[in-house]
Amino acid sequence: MLHHLIRQAAQSGFPDESFGRTLVQVAPSRRNFLKAAGAGGALILGAHLPLPALAAGGAPPGIVGPADPRPHLFVIIAPDNTVTVLAKHLDKGQGIVTGLATIVAEELDADWAQMRGAFAPADSKLYGNHFFGIQGTGGSTAIANSWDELRMAGAAARAMLVAAAAARWNVPAGEVTVAKGVVSHAASNRRFTFGELAEDAAKLPVPQKVALKAAKDYTLIGKPGLHRLDHVSKTDGSAIFAMDIRRPGQVTAVLARSPRFGGTVKSVDDKAARAVPGVLDVLTLPVGVAVIAKNTWTAIKGREALKIVWDDSKAETRGTDQMLADYRKLAQTSGAVAADKGDVAKAFAGAAAVVEGEFVFPYLAHAPMEPLNATVALNPDGGCTIWAGSQFQGVEQMVVAHVLGCKPEQVKIETQWAGGSFGRRATTNADYIAEAAIIAKAYGKAPVHLVWTREDDIKGGRYRPLFLHTIKAAVDSSGALVAWRQRIVGQSFMAGTPFEKMMVKNGVDATSVEGASDMAYAVPNLAVDLHSPTSPVTTLWWRSVGHTHTAYAKEVMIDQLARAAGKDPLAFRLAMLKDHPRMANVLTLAAEKAGWDKPLPKGKGRGVAVHESFNTFVAHVAEVTVSDKGHVTVDRVVVAVDCGQVVNPDVVTAQMEGATGWGIGHALRGEITLTDGLVDQSNFDGFLPLRMSDMPKVEVHIVDSHERPTGAGEPGVPTSAPAVANAVFAVTGKPVQTLPFSRGGMV
Amino acid sequence: MIRITVNGQERQVDVPDDMPLLWVLRDELNMTGTKFGCGIAQCGACTVHVDGAPTRACQTPVGTLAAGAKVTTIEGASGKVAEAVRAAWQKLDVVQCGYCQSGQIMSAIALVAANTNPTDADIDAAMDGNVCRCATYGRVRAAIKDAAQSVRA
């Protein structure tokens, strides 16, 4: 997601260590954070990292100076000896709270057992994502974003603890050491815990310059054995998700939405719904018909009793078969140019072998395990407080402020652990949170908890778009790739949003062509163009965004070309990656660990894929068994990843494991289809998730690197499915160009 | 009034007979460790034990519980097997988003209680009803084996 912005930021340089960064000590007035730490006398630190001016009309990010005089609070050292790191990013399972705490703990020389995590309050000025200009989590940016500011904050806090100890002992600061959460003076054999020094340290001036550790001195960053900070609360039922919020007097709402995308309410008969005992109100609103009840079950029963006539005059009434037929027609014509290098037509004329392919990618739901929900309580000042697994706090504050007619800063957000997202919670119009605010405003009497059922989620859109790719590519007589022409057809989910100006240039939505228009393989003639047809069906980024389809089409096509050229798929790729050493490196690593050259028995095959996304490099090698009947079993998957400096290797490993399951699971049997505009699937009995017995063995190998850290949440997805498809191709000789595999009777 | 026994405590709730146990636990008793995931027994996030047997609370109308039936939720899961399963989950850092893990753990406890040396096929059979969208399945499998081993020891 937003890779374009990330690249812009990377190109213009990350903020320089010496520029504009001031460490600031918190004013005592911010007692809310002191309370959060459970005690007074705490040392609370932050770092000023100026936000790039992305919000100002797409200007290239640059250093604009501190936008806000208040400190960016990140670290709280409390007298009880706990160190709490305030995470400005949402943890939806990717382990970012653990990762951010690791960064601070390293510079602080803390003991891992004393580290805690908490979600920062919503405030884009204090907690904006440096790549977005507002507070938000996405695009696998969180570690890259926080790497500098959290090391600075940790190092400054350490220096202040050292200074406080030196003063208490009346010794030079240079004689004071810190290790595993203990501040020591070796010569006199004296020690303090951080908690014992917190109050003194808080009174000291904040050092304006601090030395950061060299990578060779890390004792926590990149090291195994640090457990996730949420591994206990998520195994005893005590972790609180938005779904678990229970405010005094709270009521539950469910919303009846148009079964067809773009439909609106024509008329409502709510008599039967109102007659359900426990139903408190029925509200007909622009977003649908809300049933408010004293509990969730009753609200659902009330909604079932509604009789609604929908106006479908502006609704999507096509099925996906018809949409695909329309896409095929579009693919006969040229689209907006995303890449144009050399002369593909001329290259095709002189080629030794030409390969063509048509790739079809279905709509896909995100279906996070925690169905979408949010609780909104109206506040006396005209604002509100929201409890949600909030991923785009900056957007949500602006949208809800518009709904309520208040200022964005009057929209308080209490971010909760999120039960998955995969992109779904980061919407450009705050969809489900806006619904909750609209209902809370209309009801007006009590905090409203809006709950989406699983059916609401599966039928509710914001899907990974349906995509069609046509590719024609050629090799010359030496077996080298000489031409590649690719046409992509699929909806833009950036068009019509506040992000359009940044993300759509000359008719090309960067998120539709990423991974295709910037193909890493050396090819002298490259043409990529794009059609972005529109439909009322709502679409959205989905874990790894454009790369979910572009990497698949590219990598499956490359195997077909390797075969046409009579080359080994691994050697064919490596020969085209001479200018991309990090890609070549992960490719080689995965192949070595998988035993690429070891023969497999009949009926088994091995496939490979490599891709860069979100500045991270990943290769997959998959081994499959294809039965006599053509059924595919994924036996083993080897992953190699280069995400720069690894912060927590086990969390990165977990992300690669999960991303592999995510990619393969949807490739096997994931699809959302429409018939006459109605979604055919409604729950996990139709939108079939990966299950235990589907999960292959996954081995993860992480490249040892001290490059700047990038991200790990999404980049494991793009290569997982094409590696499996290429393994199937190795067995059957038939490329898998239409997803899911179940369409071809393979599962 | 309906009487049910949850985690060893007798509770009274004033709800219709057809309200699923899931919503009784979550909305009436404020025991939110048991999760709503699908509502149709397809994901297992709501798994509790009824007299020790793994049960989908979303498809168990509270009125159908036998008199004296003992309901155990994630909050009340205890004993040697439960402790071994929870310890294995923590040791292997199984969780990601964690939303499905109450159900995964309740299914795993029931499996290990009945079979202290489960094969991969046993694990598939016992756990295929528990969906994890983060795909923590590999670690769930490893944790079940780890827990089973410590129960055997």
UniProtKB/TrEMBL annotation, chain A:
The source's superkingdom equals Bacteria
Pfam families in UniProt: MoCoBD_1, MoCoBD_2
Residue span(s) of domain Aldehyde oxidase/xanthine dehydrogenase a/b hammerhead: 236-314
Where does the UniProt annotation place the signal sequence? none
One MF annotation (Gene Ontology) recorded for this entry = oxidoreductase activity
InterPro entries in alphabetical order = Ald_Oxase/Xan_DH_a/b (IPR000674), AldOxase/xan_DH_MoCoBD1 (IPR008274), AldOxase/xan_DH_MoCoBD2 (IPR046867), AldOxase/xan_DH_Mopterin-bd_sf (IPR037165), N-heterocyclic_Hydroxylase (IPR052516), OxRdtase_Mopterin-bd_su_IorB (IPR012368), TAT_signal (IPR006311), TAT_signal_bac_arc (IPR019546)
Identify the PROSITE patterns for this entry: TAT (PS51318)
This protein is called Xanthine dehydrogenase family protein molybdopterin-binding subunit
Q: Which organism is it from?
A: Azospirillum cavernae
Automatic annotation (TrEMBL), chain B:
* Gene3D superfamilies recorded: 3.10.20.30, [2Fe-2S]-binding domain
**Residues annotated as signal peptide:** none
Q: Does the keyword Transport apply?
A: no
Q: Which domain of life is it from?
A: Bacteria
Q: What region holds the 2Fe-2S ferredoxin-type domain?
A: 1-77
Would the keyword Oxidoreductase be found if you checked this record's keyword annotation? yes
Q: Which GO MF terms are attached to this record?
A: 2 iron, 2 sulfur cluster binding; metal ion binding; oxidoreductase activity
Q: Which residues form a coiled coil?
A: none
Q: What UniProt keywords are attached to this protein's entry?
A: 2Fe-2S, Iron, Iron-sulfur, Metal-binding, Oxidoreductase
Q: How is this protein named in the record?
A: (2Fe-2S)-binding protein
